[in-house]
């Protein structure tokens, strides 16, 4: 679509009762990001209350009809997804605005390939809209869903706000909290920073500005903060006064989260085990594990609306009353089939039904089983088949190939969930975002305890595959040739492992953690994996990059199969004022609790890398990594090395466990010292 165009959704598909909108972008460094927000507007073009403003601190709005689904990796980088149950949007709502904003003084001109996509409930793409010219704005309205004559239509907007998300939200009637302690650094809900000099408060609202026009002169200067040592610094250029901290949109909802620290136990000794809602001690066979895991997850989905909605919204399910069933017998020729579970959601007299097929441990999905369930679902008018296993689906590489009978008018969608994704969503809810009441939080905690127990079989991706050992041996003896299918299998499993690492770390931190993709838009993911497999054969290394929200850099991970070493590293820019030695000393002080074997390497302008050394050696002699030729320091590279596990699984000596340990150690002992002290918190309860 082009800017300003509109289209009726029913003209594009019959399955538009629920739709998923995706907002995507990319950047050359992989570090650029933005926050998605949605505003539900009445006939006057205003929100009815702050609850109609859906953003990261209020991810569900409109009685559950709008839900932020978070980011998902794509071939072009990543995409923020939003689920809309259009049949359940309150009747008083005439228009739904979909926007995104940047923070920390960033502008959309620093991002590439701004785009919006819209898919129906079966996952078929209906709309694609590329936003151009968003150079000097910090907030953009990508598009609108609006009612016209009882039908939902979509309009491609592409309109920008230089005043950021706060200005956009104010224009649509969102109350703004102007207290200093809650104010972010920028007008677009940026991370909290050091106090800014006072100046006249911004106007309460800003008119919309077309993308591409010159911005309002409200772009603040970068704050430098107080100096941390007494070394004289060269005179810095005079900076314009920064604006008064902007005001934060509020929400009135209060959610329940569980504390991270548990109260002191009343047990007589450590051998006593707490009674659990979902016991795991009696599980003996794979069949028992599958049956128990299916029942546990489906029952919690039905009892905790936030959790059930979180797992099904992206699959086209409506926001309604959910009931779940296990071991349901359905006719299928002469041999009735018994899917592991059934999910039914009722909204306004309409039913949405999905069959569920579950696998635990290393058991793979069986194509004939999934095919039979797809056929049954099509005949009975069900909407979806959901597979749930420890495997991780990759774009362009389906876990199960199924045949679709084009003669059938009713289409069935096939979706996949990893157990790692289920754990991730439960962690986000009970540790960071919150649920409706304490009982629901406790249920999710019991679910987590069950899924993370060694006997459950729900451990996520835990096997690098049969090709892992032959590929390692081929690299050692230099017999692995480009084009070897085994190298491609290792690359695919490496990508699955990296995605799972992101899910696990993101759930623990309550922050977005995503793999970085440095590819051009439209790249074929299968061709990219083939290219990476050839690099593996030639260089013997597996490479990945992770972007952790709030971290000034990209975490790089390299597994060198020739040396058996894992390297975790991060490059941090250094634009602070002061002499080179002063800047090095500041870095050393920030890393006072980091491991002594941390490698620090100076990055210099125009020459790549400069001097290097370990933290143990540099603590008494920080001048050792100051360039002797006077070259300008542009940043530092921090690295840790660790021995790599040999086995293909996740045992104590396995490769997967060694990767998890390397990332955890680097983040806990290095990265946390680099993050801003008053970083914006996604898990904080809403203000107001």
Features:
single chain, 688 residues, alpha+beta, seven-stranded antiparallel sheet, 12 helices, 27 strands, globular, disordered C terminus
Concise description?
The chain has 688 residues and is α+β, with helices and mostly antiparallel strands. It is 23% helix and 25% strand. The chain is built from 12 helices and 27 strands.
Give the topology, please:
Layout: E1 6-8, E2 18-26, E3 35-41, E4 53-54, E5 60-61, E6 66-74, E7 77-85, E8 95-101, E9 112-119, E10 125-130, E11 139-148, E12 151-161, H1 164-171, E13 176-177, E14 209-210, E15 248-249, H2 286-303, H3 305-312, E16 321-326, E17 341-347, E18 350-358, H4 367-380, E19 384-389, E20 413-418, H5 419-433, H6 438-451, H7 468-476, H8 485-509, E21 513-515, H9 525-539, E22 541-548, E23 555-560, E24 565-573, H10 580-590, E25 599-604, E26 608-614, H11 615-618, E27 633-643, H12 655-669
Parallel strand pairs: 18-19, 19-20
Antiparallel strand pairs: 1-12, 2-7, 2-9, 3-4, 3-8, 5-6, 6-7, 8-11, 9-10, 11-12, 12-14, 13-15, 16-17, 17-18, 21-22, 22-23, 23-24, 24-27, 25-26, 25-27
Helix pairs in contact: 2-3, 2-6, 3-5, 5-6, 5-8, 8-9
Describe the structure.
- The chain is an alpha+beta fold and 688 residues long.
- Helices cover 23% and strands 25% of the residues.
- The protein has helices at residues 164-171, 286-303, 305-312, 367-380, 419-433, 438-451, 468-476, 485-509, 525-539, 580-590, 615-618, 655-669; strands spanning 6-8, 18-26, 35-41, 53-54, 60-61, 66-74, 77-85, 95-101, 112-119, 125-130, 139-148, 151-161, 176-177, 209-210, 248-249, 321-326, 341-347, 350-358, 384-389, 413-418, 513-515, 541-548, 555-560, 565-573, 599-604, 608-614, 633-643.
- The strands form five sheets. Strands 1, 3, 4, 8, 11, 12 and 14 form a seven-stranded antiparallel beta sheet that branches. A seven-stranded antiparallel beta sheet has the order 21-22-23-24-27-25-26.
- Strand 23 (555-560) and strand 24 form a beta hairpin.
- Helix 2 (286-303) crosses helix 3 (305-312).
- The two termini are 39 Å apart.
- Residues 178-246 and 677-688 have low confidence and may be disordered.
């Amino acid at each position: 679509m082009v800017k300003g165009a509109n289209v009726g959704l029913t003209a594009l598909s019959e399955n538009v009762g629920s739709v998923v909108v995706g907002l995507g972008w990319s950047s050359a460094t992989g570090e650029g990001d933005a926050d998605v927000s949605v505003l539900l507007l009445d006939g006057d073009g205003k929100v009815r209350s702050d609850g109609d403003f859906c953003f990261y601190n209020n991810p569900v709005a409109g009685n559950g009809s709008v839900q932020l689904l978070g980011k998902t990796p794509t071939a072009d980088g990543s995409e923020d997804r939003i689920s809309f149950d259009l049949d359940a949007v309150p009747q008083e709502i005439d228009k739904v605005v979909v926007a995104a904003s940047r923070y920390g003084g960033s502008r959309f001109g620093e991002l590439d390939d701004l785009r919006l996509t819209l898919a129906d409930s079966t996952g078929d793409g209906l709309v694609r809209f590329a936003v151009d010219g968003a150079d000097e704005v910090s907030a953009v309205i990508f598009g609108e869903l609006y009612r016209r004559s009882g039908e939902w239509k979509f309009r491609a907007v592409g309109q920008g706000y230089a005043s950021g998300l706060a200005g956009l939200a104010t224009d649509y009637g969102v109350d703004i909290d102007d207290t200093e302690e809650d104010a972010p650094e920028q007008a677009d809900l940026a991370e909290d920073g050091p106090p800014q000099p006072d100046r006249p408060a911004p106007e309460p609202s800003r008119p919309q500005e077309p993308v591409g026009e010159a911005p309002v002169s409200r772009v603040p200067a970068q704050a430098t903060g107080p100096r941390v040592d007494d070394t004289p610094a060269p005179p810095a250029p005079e900076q314009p006064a920064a604006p008064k901290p902007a005001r934060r949109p509020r929400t009135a909802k209060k959610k329940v989260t569980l504390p991270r620290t548990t109260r002191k136990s009343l047990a007589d000794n450590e051998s006593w085990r707490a009674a659990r809602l979902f016991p795991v001690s009696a599980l003996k066979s794979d069949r028992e594990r599958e049956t128990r895991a299916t029942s546990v997850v489906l029952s919690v989905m039905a009892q905790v609306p936030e959790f059930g909605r979180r797992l099904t919204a992206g699959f086209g399910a409506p926001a309604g009353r959910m009931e779940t069933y296990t071991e349901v017998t359905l006719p299928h020729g002469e041999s009735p089939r018994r899917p592991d579970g059934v999910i039914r959601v009722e909204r306004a007299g309409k039913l949405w039904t999905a069959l569920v097929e579950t696998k635990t441990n290393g058991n793979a999905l069986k194509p004939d089983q999934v095919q039979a369930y797809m056929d049954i679902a099509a005949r009975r008018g069900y909407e979806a088949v959901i597979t749930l296993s420890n495997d991780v689906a990759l774009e362009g590489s389906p876990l199960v190939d199924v045949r679709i009978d084009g003669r059938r008018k009713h289409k069935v969608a096939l979706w996949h969930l990893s157990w790692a994704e289920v754990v991730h969503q439960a962690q986000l809810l009970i540790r960071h975002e919150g649920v409706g009441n304490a009982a629901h939080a406790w249920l999710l905690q019991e679910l987590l305890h069950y899924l993370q127990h060694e006997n459950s079989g729900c451990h996520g991706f835990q096997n690098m595959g049969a090709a892992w050992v032959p590929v390692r041996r081929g690299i050692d003896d230099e017999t692995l040739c480009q084009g070897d299918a085994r190298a491609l299998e290792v690359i695919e499993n490496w990508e699955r492992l990296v995605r799972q690492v992101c899910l696990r770390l993101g759930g623990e931190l309550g922050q977005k953690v995503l793999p970085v993709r440095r590819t051009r838009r439209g790249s074929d993911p299968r061709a990219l994996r083939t290219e990476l497999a050839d690099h593996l054969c030639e260089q013997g290394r597996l490479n990945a990059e992770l972007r952790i929200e709030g971290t000034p850099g990209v975490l790089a991970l390299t597994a060198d199969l020739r040396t058996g070493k894992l390297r975790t590293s991060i490059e941090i820019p250094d634009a602070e004022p002061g002499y080179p030695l002063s800047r090095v000393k500041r870095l050393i002080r920030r890393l006072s609790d980091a491991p002594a074997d941390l490698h620090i390497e100076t990055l210099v302008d125009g020459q790549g890398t400069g001097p290097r050394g370990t933290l143990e050696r540099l603590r008494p002699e920080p001048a050792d990594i100051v360039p002797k030729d006077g070259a300008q320091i542009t940043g530092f590279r921090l690295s840790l090395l660790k021995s790599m596990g040999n086995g293909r699984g996740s045992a104590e000596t396995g490769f997967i466990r060694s990767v998890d340990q390397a990332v955890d150690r680097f983040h806990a002992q290095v990265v946390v010292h680099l993050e801003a002290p008053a970083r914006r918190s996604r898990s904080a309860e809403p203000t107001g």
